[in-house]
Amino acid sequence: MKKTVCLLLTLALLLPVLAMADEVVNVFNWEDYIDESMLALFEEETGIKVNYMRFTDNEEMVISVESNPGAFDVVFPSEYMVERLMNKGLLSEINYDNIPNFKNIRDDLLNPAYDANNAHSVPYMWGTLGILYNKNLVDEADVHTWNVLWNEKYAGQILMMDSLRDTMAVALLLTTGDKSSVNSTDFTQLSAAAELLKQQKSAGLVKAYGLDEFKDKMVAGEGALAMVYSGDAEYAIELNEDLAYVVPDEGSNIWVDCAVIPASARNKENAEKFIDFLCRADVAAANVEEIGYCSPNKAAIELLGEDYQESSVMNPSDEVIARCEYYHDLDETWLNIYTTLYSEVLSTKVN
Amino acid sequence: MINNLQLPPWALWAMVLALIVFIAMVVISVRRNHGIKRSLFASPYILWMFIFTLLPCVLIAYYAFTDVNGHFTLDNFSSFWDSNYIMRENLRSVAGDEMAATVARGSVNVDTLVYSLWMALLCTVVSLILGYPAALFMADRKMKLGPTLVVLFIIPMWMNFLLRTIAWMSLLEDNGLINAFLERIGVGKVQLMYNQQAVLLGMVYNFLPFMVFPIYTSLSKMDPKLAEAAQDLGCNDMLTLLKVTMPLSLPGVISGITMVFMPSVTTFFIPRVLGGGNTRMFGDLIESTFKTAGNWNLGSALSLIMMVLILISLSILRKADPNGEGGGIV
Predict the structure, then answer these.
(1) What is the ipTM, given to two decimal places?
(2) CB-based contact B111 A339, cutoff 8 Å
């Protein structure tokens, strides 16, 4: 008797799940990368239940998507990962008839190199790589070029980013003068770039190599110059007015986190509704205010007011975007060559 | 690429096998003794050890001697000796023999290991010089302050070492407490962070208790009558210390050296936080081989080499303390 009751109760609990089976959307996004009250708003407006799941890095996300087909309807990879997922045939094409708000996305981010005509991806948040500097310690005439990180004047005050692709990109831009070299697969170029980084380190120009902690170090005045992402620059500038951010003339990296629909998605239409919802001006603006990253959404920037529109960090000009380059996904062979060269840089001792 | 690496298929079977063997052992033991024997209470730990100590070691050895596809290879050890080994092979496939020939032997892995051993040695020597007098002081029965000192040594260990290391940052920074003080008294700012001394400081700070406590234990176990006897026989304080106390505390010293040297060689995180990438140690290299380079096989080979080196140094130390009197760690 007891058993029967238990069984019935369990079934009763399952009922609402079954009843709503076709009215869900399974979203897989970065940790802290949305204003979560927007999820409730979406549920209220559409009656579609959002199952919201989180990840912390691209690689981990790909493993989940590959090993759980059908588990996710909307996923948010970075641009090079969009490329890898696309090449593996894991993404489905987006039907833009269902995403009228796509018109809000700024034109210079459309039809990107990683995904022709945005067939598979809708930009969600984006940013650049650049230099965060302290106006009291650095002559502003010097910072228009990456070369400032090799300037003897600032020896011992330079904070370098410990990030394989980004750090190599800076040296590649300097040695080749060509923005497309951030994806170089020319060994002569790569070893020259690594040599430049080794020389910078052994000459004692670099104060330290690190990552996230540098935005706080810059706020505390612990360095004159630091390589940072634009999102971190915005955070630091808000806390310390002496700081400024620049994307140097030689060019830089531009990154875009996108919304995509896996080929295995079970609720493709709901996924498109959700992506359309994210592209709506008020929703995109709310997300920017919550997480503090740059939005690719023109209408949202309009809503966010003058301060935001005039910020060269949060809303870079078309000219800045034009000199930036996307990273392409490297194959295993080249990734190993990059890693080996970079490892030598990290092991270089100060003379 | 890297992320497709998974445990070898037999890892799960090994765990299942371990469980079966374990259950069999329990059953046999109960039957033989017609009831539960006392040693049976150790069995949960034996199971734990098998799954979380022995099996991971086997896995490390497995990865170290195989390539990505699970075939036997010694390439990972060639890569240890010549850090450019894999890169040269890769270049051969994408840029031809000529380009590959321009790549000389890379010494990153060997150099980093040598540097780590050197730093560990420095850390051990400094800890011993600081730790022995402290232990002597703490163990002295005439000192009222001794027990208080013991507590003071233990208190910082209630906090995780990562937090303690980060706390050092706010002391050593350019605008940190120490520099603020130096500036106030007119000395001016000194660059304290991001160099070898800062890393050494962090290591000594974190590992010093592991030197002090074994020595303290062996000193306080010592019969005070022995020192008194030496003095009755005409030794002065200095000679008593050199000829009686020190030799008797040797097992503690050896245990302390082991307990400081081992974690010192494998140090990571401290060099990154206090050395800012200017002092890369072997632990950091292994971490980045796994995480950034995604090369589990090479990472395992590096770990294996380090484990063997530690085993060798342990067996040398074991010769000096054959009865394991200093806590039996060795």
Answers:
(1) 0.83
(2) no
